[in-house]
Amino acid sequence: MVKRARLLYNPVSGHEIMERNVAGVLAVLEDAGYESSTFRTRPEEGSTQAEAKRAALAGFDLLVAAGGDGTINEVVNGIAGLKHRPMLGIIPVGTTNDYARALKIPREDPVGAAKIIAKGQHIGVDIGKANDQYFVNIAGGGNMMDLTYEVQSDVKSALGYLAYLLKGAEMLPRMRPIQMHLAYDEGTYDGEASMFFLSLTNSVGGLEQIAPDAVLGDGQFTLIIVKTANLVEIVQLLTMVLTGGRHVNDDRIIYTQTKRLDVAAKHGEQLKVNLDGEYGGDAPMHFVNLKQHIQAFANVAAIPDDAIADQDEVVKGKLIASVHALHDAHRNDSEDTAH
Fold this sequence. Notes:
The chain is α+β, with helices and mostly antiparallel strands. The protein folds into two domains: 3-127 and 292-336, Rossmann fold; 133-290, Tumour Suppressor Smad4. The chain has ten helices and 16 strands. The strands form three sheets. Strands 6-5-16-13-8-9 form a six-stranded antiparallel sheet, with helices on one face. Strands 12-11-10-7-14-15 form a six-stranded antiparallel sheet, with no helix packed on it. Strands 2-1-3-4 form a four-stranded parallel sheet, sandwiched between helices. Strand 14 and strand 15 (278-282) form a beta hairpin. It is globular. Residues 313-332 have low confidence and may be disordered.
């Protein structure tokens, strides 16, 4: 049976780099044995999500999300709620490309990313669910949440620590803590916090040490609660992130692993929630980790062994299916012999 792939690409991501590389990407997919077609994403809200769901229900074997983290988020939201989900390929041509960083997929190189899919290496990745929405990399909330996202990658590379200091100074008028209630596996936090993060990978806003011990597919979020709202202390913590992830033991934060999180703002305050870099609604919100919910192509050879969880659940599922298939074949043979 011929495998079918649907390339969903954002024509404006990465300075329109995908428009110039669609033919090359399709050629790689065709050489890998996929009968391939394309969908050019449209500005209308939800169009990419709707097409991803349509393609999944139409029986496509592979969906390739080409764009930034937002495009990946829309594709995942289109398929995560389905019983039968296609495999996911990623071609990162956005600004930050956090998810691609974690999966070690070449960025700003569409054909190179397509070749990762062609290699056939894939892993079961966790997906976060926030009420009735899904996210692939990061959820968070609080008045300081935008700090990691609003610093552009090129500025971050050039200025480092100073880039965050400048952005923090710009955000100073809206910088204040929020009274939060957060309930997670190991306990409850009631008190002031400037922000909270729930991360599925080690890369947030281009910083690869915010969750240094994150493991792909382990069924756990990394939860970080930042209790301080002081600009100097926030920048100190970011500096500790940039210098080897030393923030994990700092008293000004709570750093833990959890499979679920319930978040609410106290005293009627508004607590906006960010999902994969976009506004996802206001708390109260319930988060749950869907372990190894989607099979995603990754540059597995480049990911450290201890950064990928045991894929036994996926292997067991395939093994059980194989045993059932052999049993059915044996039963059919017996019935044929009887006749």
